[in-house]
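Archive transcription. Copying these from loose printouts into the bound notebook so they stop getting lost. Printout 1 of 2:
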Amino acid sequence: MPQANPRVADHPIDSQFLSRWSPRAFTGADISEETVLTFLEAARWAPSSYNSQPWRFVYARRGTPQWEGLLGLLNDFNRSWAENASVLFIVLSKTTFTPPGAAAPVPAVSHSFDTGSAWAYLALQASLSGWHAHAMVGFDKDRARTQLGVPADFSVEAAVAIGKLGDKSILPEGLQSREVPSPREPVSKFAFEGKFQG
């Protein structure tokens, strides 16, 4: 269902950055493994320190045996709308890496930053492919670690729901008014030449 997009860029950018947003109303449409792999292929090409590629994605498509397990990790609020998504991801990042020429791993100080790049690539590819991605932190990270067998040297970062845009009327009344692309602060609010001014 087309939604009004109130976003307007103050400086010239590609329209994909205005088109990508994070709805909660999804149709429950089936998604193919090939489509999910296309999203992950985009994430694969994100930049990372030392090309260490710390990101990991555990996913489950609607209708597969793994679906209920991932859906059950979400808190009640997020589960109430994400149950209509087509695929769920848990995003992880490796907190250590072995630098070139080193014999032992060291802390990867940019693991979350780098994994954020991979998530952004995945989200943009989903948008370009006619899907919508919504990331969230409202889920049980400790249970995710145990249930998914995540090793100690990985951080559990976020959950992501991806689906086809549905009608906002399926959402609780309080969420329907929020089901539009959100605005952003102007560049002047977060970027400063030469010295921090915030």
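Printout 2 of 2:
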Amino acid sequence: MNNKVFDIWSILKTEKQVGLVKRLYSADSKINVYCIYQYPEECYGIALSFPKSIRLNLAPFASISEPIVELYEDSSFSDSMLLCAKIKTSDKTNEFSYLCENVLQAIIVKETIEDAVQTFCNTLLRWKNLFERVQGKWLSKEEQQGLYGELRFLKKCLQYSSSSSYYNIVQNYVGTDRALRDFQGKDWAVEVKTTSTNNPQNLIINGERQLDDTMIETLFLYHCSFEVSRQTGENLPEMVKSIKTILKDDVATLSLFNSKLFEAGYIDTHEYLYTNIHYQLRKDSFFHVKGDFPRIREKELRDGVVNVRYSICISSLESYRVAEQIVLSKCLKND
């Protein structure tokens, strides 16, 4: 399903006007943002118009190949500049359009041009790291399994809620942003862990803050145990497709979900690489992380101890088990 950015790019591409061409994204906003297309180079991107009085430092983007960040004089307005971000990689155009759609939506609601410029620049810095991470790379087996587990919990939330909550649910999926935990709401968080038959007994915890509930009201751990095979079960593209089917009538949420997938390193053109690994659920469990839950917390570390990584035995968590409905009710309440 195309979004507005992709639709505008398609129109600009058919016109084949030589040079960098821009088209206004929204006439209802006082912030002037554009979809851009450059022919014959076939570059796709977005741009923001802003006064020359606002100074920008583009040095952080000088050494990266994508997105290409450039600054031009904006001929449409006096004393104005045009900040552009574009890509030329054809196999990422679809995913990039969803990223662009979401950042433009965030920019056009800003009250001041200064806030809009800051939002765009912060996004470009995040995109810089994102494109460096996914450039010519596909997900490892461990990354595929981890993403499948996260999407399994996301799908549970979507199926448990009404369509009016879909956007907030997908927005709460922050694991793709390399956040501390995989799902984060106002006063709750869920960390997702997966194991397969090769290592079914222990869970790897990355960092002293991952299971630290000091700064949050409620923290849950969701564990999925899978049988992994080449034929039996569901593969990662099938899981992705099932979630997109749920969101098919909600363009904004579908766009957000697609951008989350790209941030996770999942690219549609790489789907064929993920079809041979299937996951058959053996057991899934929810645990309430509280009290004497087996973990290491930040305040318990001695001075000088850093980069903590440890394992916990799954069998030791039984007394902390909670029902799935309790977790979903908490996560979806007021979110």
